[in-house]
Amino acid sequence: MSGTDRTRAELTRLTPPKDAVAPVRHPDAPAPGELLGAHYDRCFGCGTGQPHGLHLEARAGEGVSVRAEFTVKEAHQGAPGLAHGGVLATALDETLGSLNWLLRVIAVTGRLETDFVRPVPLGTVLHLDARVTAVHRRKIYSSAVGRIGGPDGPVAVRAEAVFIEVKVDHFIDNGRAEEIQAAMADPDQAKRARAFEVNP
Question: Could you give the CA distance from residue 23 to residue 102 in angstroms, rounded to a whole number?
């Protein structure tokens, strides 16, 4: 393993180091039960401007946790009548990324490890619960579970992730100029900040 590969592996290890600390909900975070809304209208995970997107809706939970729902539609199929595994991983990633709004940090997915426990049929509402488990410098450790048949139904998918806190320059330097300028021009400060919330 090269030095660069080793550094990347160490950066995205899913187990928090011993000196990691418990997460602290930001005082300006949305109240428990409050709908977080789309962080960006064109986001495939939560945006309302994507006709075939997930249209995932997340609500703030207690502490540093969120609850979300996503309905598997025809466009989300992999095998006939079943959700595509990549779509389910996206739903988990989107839910986990929403946690960063409760910390009020901009962060990107460093690593996402997903377990597929049971098939998720077309028409199913996937109930997702996610929480931050630890913070270590720029790294945010989190986990999520997705259930079918109700919030207490059987587990269908689960994930662990590490997000890396970044500056907004990460997006400005790497995103397409037209979309970046449109997001930066939004007069709503909260929406402008949230547009750069998740994913590399």
Answer: 10
